[in-house]
TrEMBL record:
Protein name: Ribosomal protein
Function comment: Protein L1 is also a translational repressor protein, it controls the translation of the L11 operon by binding to its mRNA.
Keywords from the UniProt entry: Repressor, Ribonucleoprotein, Ribosomal protein, RNA-binding, rRNA-binding, Translation regulation, tRNA-binding
GO cellular component, one term: large ribosomal subunit
Length: 234
């Protein structure tokens, strides 16, 4: 595995040297990481935004979440909190776990867990009882992340299709998975564009708040995206 990683890194270095560039357009970057793929499993495509701003400051977007326009290709376990009538209305929505008081008990006992937790406004009185369980995992429903809504049916459909989540690390970088590589370049471009627009909207100076943007697959080396090439796209 280590040899394959080194070979992919050397191949990328030569390609960029031949092009006499350090960064490429978004589409070129996605095509490159597909060519560099060597893992036998289906890899995900990850994006990193390197921020100029201190992530500890108030306006720093620690978390951003958007529905993936083209889905992510990943199956997520979804739990939904709501009133009895709300849960009855979405019982065939495709969510894995639905409920209120009993759902709280199932979480507390460790009987169930989830990747994404959704709620209606009324359902939050139940979800809040799990703040010590869901909070540290970053799974507590949140208005800013779009995981609380009165339209639970649409919310669940969006979550099943795929939600892209991102957050800032201690070094001032935002990381997010934009989907499986099998989605294809056009779909990944669309997912990236939607994410990038949301990130830039959340930053005080938009693109000027970014040092750089990189894209990679699970196992490939990172390829830098030329920020200037994104003009007119985002």
């Amino acid at each position: 595995m280590g040899k394959n990683i080194n070979n992919a890194g050397s191949k990328l270095k030569k390609i960029l040297e031949d092009k006499k560039v350090e960064s490429v357009s978004l589409k070129e970057a996605l095509d490159l990481i597909k060519d560099l793929k060597f893992a036998k499993f289906e890899e995900s495509v990850d994006v990193s935004f390197n921020l100029k701003k201190d992530p500890k400051k108030a306006n720093q977007p620690f978390k951003v979440a958007i529905p993936a326009p083209k889905g992510t290709g990943k199956k997520k376990t979804i739990a939904v909190f709501g009133s009895d009538s709300e849960i009855e209305n979405i019982k065939d929505s495709g969510a894995d776990y639905l409920g209120n008081d009993q759902l709280v008990e199932d979480f507390k006992s460790g009987k169930i867990d989830c990747d994404i937790c959704l709620s209606s406004v009324e359902g939050m009185k139940y979800a809040k009882k799990l703040s010590r369980i869901l909070g540290p995992k970053g799974k507590m429903p949140n208005v800013k992340l779009g995981t609380i809504s009165q339209d639970l049916d649409s919310l669940v459909k969006s979550a099943i299709k795929g939600i892209i989540f991102t957050g800032a690390d201690a070094q001032g970088n935002l990381h997010a998975g934009i989907g499986k590589i099998s989605l294809g370049t056009d779909s990944l471009v669309e997912n990236f564009t939607a994410l990038c627009e949301k990130v830039l909207e959340s930053l005080p100076k938009g693109m000027d708040s970014l040092n750089s943007i990189f894209v990679k697959t699970t196992m490939s080396p990172s390829v830098e995206i030329d920020k200037n090439s994104l003009k007119g796209i985002v």
